[in-house]
Each structure stands twice: as C-alpha cells, then as structure tokens.
Specification:
Number of strands: 0
Number of domains: 1
Helix content: 55-70%
Largest sheet: none
Strand content: under 5%
Structural class: mainly alpha
Order of helices and strands: HHHH
Mean pLDDT: 94
Distance between the termini: 32 Å
Number of helices: 4
Amino acid sequence: MTGVELIAEERQRQVDVEGWTPGHDAEHMAGELAGAARAYTHVAQLQVCRQTISSNPPLSWPDWADEWWKPSDDPIRNLVKAGALIAAEIDRLQRLR
C-alpha cells in the first residue's frame, strides 16, 4: 500500500470506528487537528533518528484527554495517523469556505 492509501484507510477508520465525523471535526476550530498531527509527526521523527521518546505527548498535542494519545512503536504508523489528521483538518477548513 502507498502512503496515500494508508492515510485514506486510517482516515476512514477514524470516521467509522472512532466516530470522528465531519461534524465532530468542525468542533475543533483552534488548530487541534493540526496540532495532533504535528505531535505524531514529531514522535515519528524521533523514532527515525533513534532518539528516546517520552510517554507524555509533545507540547503540540491538543488539550484532549490523555487516553487519545496513542503513539505507535512504528514511525510509519505514526506518520499515517498524522496524515489522516492533516486530511481531516484540510477537509474541515475547506468546508468553511
């Protein structure tokens, strides 16, 4: 599977399993989706560089419950999550236009 396909599949999982529908995403008007994507990207970067990763979310993680911070041991999986969150934020912003 390509990166784009993995991201699309994860975004669909977020909608179907987690219930993160466009209506839900619309509630995040302060850049939370982009911040969450940044957090997962940051962890992936540390993993690729073989640096130590804290169990605590990075500072860019939104003010969401800790239970939603679910980094993977796999940097690709973390990038896929980040990509799906970016896609959700792009869609949210486009709906505002």
